[in-house]
Structures are given as structure tokens and as C-alpha cells.
């Protein structure tokens, strides 16, 4: 079993436990559930912002512990102050060391869109994302059928959440270009093997229709890479590790953005 299969297998157990602990009606009663959401697309296309979706990530299955002493407040407020277009917060606990509490805390601290970064396979998780104060969810093509991507993204839209569709190749893109998907992200990291190559974004770029904002995800740590990706039409950059491994992630973002202009 590859790592993605293991994560998804565990997700179903986690979802069953969470549904039993907190019924969906209770999620819908939470104070953040009806807040007006922020448009991820709008923030990503604001030229006054950097295009960076800056990620809060303590650990990952591929890198182990990235930063054991992170202070979430310093990280997310630093990202916002440095011009992040949005913030991505990992909420998966078992594999990434994130929590629901992380997203709730981030929501209370920043005013830019927040992506709930998790492995979404069930509508209940979208309800949770709404109740946590997220604005956008991630749907990963590598672990969903086109039919499920359609259903989950329509569900997200009904709750006023936008959708970042993650693909890793042109085949995954095909059949998933539906109206309720808002932004296309190309993951440079293969979630089954952990291989990282920026070439993935370059290869897939030409298959993405013009109407979508293009985001390149993972393994970005160098201004030259951003400059190269921009040439291929990318205006969004999802970056975690290279910021999180420093003791001042906001400053690292500011430096990378300044150098890639
Ligand atoms: O830390 P990096 O290499 O900058 O990558 C960030 C982000 O792209 C990565 O965390 C990610 C992209 N897609 C995912 C899906 C699940 C978990 C994590 C991810």
C-alpha cells in the first residue's frame, strides 16, 4: 500500500469517529459556520498580494518533523504581514501533526482566505471546514473519482466555499474541469512516491484551460523556480516547508517574494 492509500484508509476511520462525536447539526450551529467567506480566487488575483499560499505545516510523512517549536500565531500573522494571498493550514493529525484547533486559531488571527488542507473524501469534512472558518477546500484527484470531485465541489459551493483541485498529471485533469472547481493546483510532489519535480507543473500547464488560475504546489524554495513557473502561466505558489523550517516563516516568505520579482 502506498502512503496515499494509507492516509485515505485512516481518514475513513477518523471520519466515522468524528461523525459519532460531533453530529453535523452541531457543526452547523457553530459560530463560524455562517460567517461570510472570503474568495480565494479574488485574493489570488489581487496584484497587490504575492500569489503565495503560505502553509502552516509542522511535519509530513515525506520530511518527518519540519519544525517542532512553531508558534502558530507567529507563523500565520507573519505570513499575512508578508503579503501572502492566502494561508493553508494542515488539519490532518496522524500524518501531518495538524489539528482543527490550528485552523480555528488561524481564523481568529488573520483576515486572508484560509485553505483547509486535508484529505477530503466525505461531505462531512466540508461541513467541518465551514465550521472551522475555512474559505476553501482541497480536492486531490489522485484519491477521488471525477464523479466524487463533482459531488464534493458542488457541495462546497453550496456552503460558499471555493475549491482548489489538485492534479499531478494531464490525465487527472481530464474529466475534472467542472464549473464548481475554482482553481487548479499542480502538485510537484507525487503523493504515492514522494518524488518532487517542478517539471510536473511545467508539463501540465499547457493542458489547463485559460479560465483557471494556476497554482504550482510543493518543493518551491528558490526565487528562480518562481520566475520559471511564472513564464508558464502560474500566478499562485503553494509553499510550506521552505518557510516552516526557518525560525521566522513570515520573513522567509518576504525574502522569497522580493527575490522573485
Ligand atoms: O512543503 P512544500 O514542499 O512547500 O509543499 C506545500 C504543499 O504543496 C504540500 O504540503 C501539499 C500539496 N498537496 C498536498 C496534499 C496533502 C498534503 C500536503 C500537500
Write the element-wise H/E pattern from the N-terminal end onward.
HHHEEEHEHEHEHEHEHEHEHH
Number of strands: 10
The helical percent reads: 40-55%
Distance between the termini: 42 Å
What is the CATH H-level superfamily?
Aldolase class I
Strand fraction equals 15-25%
Q: Strand count, sense and closure of the main sheet?
A: 8 strands, parallel, barrel
Number of helices: 12
Number of domains: 1
Radius of gyration: 17 Å
Which structural traits does this protein have?
alpha/beta, Indole-3-glycerol phosphate synthase, TIM Barrel, binds indole-3-glycerol phosphate, globular, 12 helices, Indole-3-glycerol_P_synth, tryptophan biosynthesis
Please write out the topology:
Layout: H1 3-21, H2 24-28, H3 40-44, E1 52-56, E2 59-60, E3 64-65, H4 72-81, E4 86-90, H5 100-109, E5 114-117, H6 123-132, E6 136-140, H7 146-158, E7 162-167, H8 170-173, E8 183-187, H9 199-205, E9 213-217, H10 223-231, E10 236-239, H11 241-244, H12 249-259
Parallel strand pairs: 1-4, 1-10, 4-5, 5-6, 6-7, 7-8, 8-9, 9-10
Antiparallel strand pairs: 2-3
In short:
The protein is an alpha/beta fold and 261 residues long.
Q: Could you explain the architecture of this structure?
A:
With 261 residues, the chain is an alpha/beta fold. It has one domain (3-259): Aldolase class I (TIM Barrel, Alpha-Beta Barrel). Helix content is 41%, strand content 16%. The chain has twelve helices and ten strands. The chain has helices at residues 3-21, 24-28, 40-44, 72-81, 100-109, 123-132, 146-158, 170-173, 199-205, 223-231, 241-244, 249-259; strands at 52-56, 59-60, 64-65, 86-90, 114-117, 136-140, 162-167, 183-187, 213-217, 236-239. The chain has an eight-stranded parallel β-barrel, surrounded by four helices. A two-stranded antiparallel ribbon has the order 2-3. The termini are far apart. 45% of the residues are buried.
Amino acid at each position: 500500500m502506498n502512503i496515499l492509500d494509507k492516509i485515505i484508509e485512516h481518514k475513513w476511520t477518523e471520519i466515522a469517529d468524528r461523525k459519532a462525536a460531533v453530529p453535523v447539526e452541531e457543526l452547523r450551529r457553530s459560530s463560524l459556520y455562517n460567517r461570510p467567506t472570503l474568495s480565494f480566487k479574488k485574493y489570488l488575483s489581487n496584484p497587490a498580494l504575492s500569489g503565495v499560499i503560505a502553509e502552516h505545516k509542522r511535519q509530513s510523512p515525506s520530511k518527518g518533523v519540519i519544525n517542532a517549536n512553531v508558534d502558530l500565531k507567529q507563523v500565520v500573522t507573519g505570513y499575512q504581514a508578508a503579503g501572502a494571498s492566502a494561508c493553508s493550514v494542515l488539519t490532518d493529525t496522524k500524518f501531518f501533526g495538524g489539528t482543527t484547533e490550528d485552523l480555528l486559531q488561524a481564523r481568529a488571527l488573520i483576515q486572508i482566505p484560509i485553505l483547509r488542507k486535508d484529505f477530503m473524501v466525505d461531505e462531512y469534512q466540508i461541513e467541518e471546514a465551514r465550521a472551522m472558518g475555512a474559505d476553501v477546500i482541497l480536492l486531490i484527484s489522485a484519491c477521488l473519482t471525477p464523479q466524487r470531485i463533482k459531488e464534493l465541489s458542488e457541495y462546497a459551493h453550496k456552503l460558499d466555499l471555493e475549491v482548489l483541485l489538485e492534479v499531478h498529471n494531464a490525465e487527472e485533469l481530464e474529466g475534472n474541469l467542472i464549473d464548481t472547481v475554482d482553481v487548479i493546483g499542480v502538485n510537484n510532489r507525487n503523493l504515492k512516491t514522494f518524488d518532487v519535480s517542478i517539471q510536473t507543473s511545467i508539463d501540465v500547464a499547457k493542458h489547463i484551460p485559460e479560465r483557471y488560475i494556476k497554482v504550482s504546489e510543493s518543493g518551491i524554495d528558490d526565487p528562480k523556480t518562481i520566475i520559471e513557473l511564472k513564464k508558464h502561466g502560474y500566478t499562485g505558489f503553494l509553499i510550506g516547508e521552505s518557510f516552516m523550517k526557518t525560525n521566522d516563516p513570515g520573513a522567509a516568505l518576504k525574502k522569497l517574494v522580493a527575490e522573485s520579482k
